Predict the structure.
Amino acid sequence: MLSKLLRLIVKLGDTFGAEKLIEISSAHTVLNFGLNFVNASAKVLHQMAEDNLKVKVRTTADPIIDMDYADDLEVIYPMFSLHDQMMKDLEQIGVYGFTCTPYFLDNKPKIGEHCAWSESSAVIYLNSVLGARSNREGGLVDLACAITGKTAYHGLHITENRKGQILFKISADINLTNVFNLTSIGLKIGEIAGNKIPVIDGLRNISTDNLKNLGAASASTGAVALIHVLNITPEAKDLNEAFQYDKPEEIIEINMKDLKEVREKYSTEWTQTPQNISIGCPQLSEEEVINVLKKLKGKKILQNINFWICTNKKVKESIKNSEFNDILISSGAKITSLCPLLTPLPRPLTTNSAKTCFYSHASYRNLDECIKIATEGIKID
Ligand code: F3S
């Protein structure tokens, strides 16, 4: 099995013209998307466990099912039957985490480290915010890299391939303190950039949480795996550095009209009150969860609506043991480690996430509107 995994990485490397394999310091795997893939990956994973293989580097995995809500979700979730065996096998080979934001746990590679990550939202964060290096690996290939401790040297592992290509200028008419605008900018940039490397000028003082949300949006509408945000991305202190002393191929301004268009394009406008409202895709940081709970203080979610606050298991536990648990209980919101796409929530669905809205039929609203709909049941145009 080990030699098969190595051959897989070499063959893939050949396809991309890689000259060699390199050592990695970290991996992140996605095994849980789509029933057909999960069925196949569960088999391969089980074989890995039976062969007693272990990961050589720190390796986390994307969200799995949140068993605290098994009763609520069993009817709609066909992967429950695979859950126990997969968890046992993953644990045996040394994989942990089960979140799409592993950098909020301890899987946070340093600048320049080579990694093999899948999960597009995590890869773009790794390259753009942490300054580490990974291509968008595929499910199972990521695990092959984790077990061998190697990946092929191509794509974003090579400095020259990290050169910015398109310069995006953010128009002054966009309010950048509004997260909804930032995620919509992400959707627009991904759509235009495709697989090119964007450089964004004009996003001063953006938090890393909001970069996570913007990046996830770009990685959904495009194959973007690295965005240079001037002054934030470690390799992009200024335009010269971001473009490696070359000129942009194109310069594009993004304005408020673009954001309105992109929202109309990707939002599914349900006319009924949503059955489910999901907040957090990528999963929320602890600060983001607290922000949602503060907004929910003194409010009550309507009876026929599930209001999901998606985060990792560690934050979930921390919130449940904090002063904010009272708000959680009195509001009726559900804090969960589920992924709203992996565990597809029944429609009508409303979300504040650009990524959820892109990949599923969901109404795309800002957080305040999601809370208003959840607690007052009114439709906001
Ligand atoms: Fe994370 Fe699931 Fe969204 S893995 S980025 S919450 S699709």
Notes: The pocket of FE3-S4 cluster is lined by residues 62-63, 100, 121, 216, 281-283, 310, 339, 341-342, 355 (CB under 6 Å). The chain has three domains: 2-157, 163-265, 267-376.
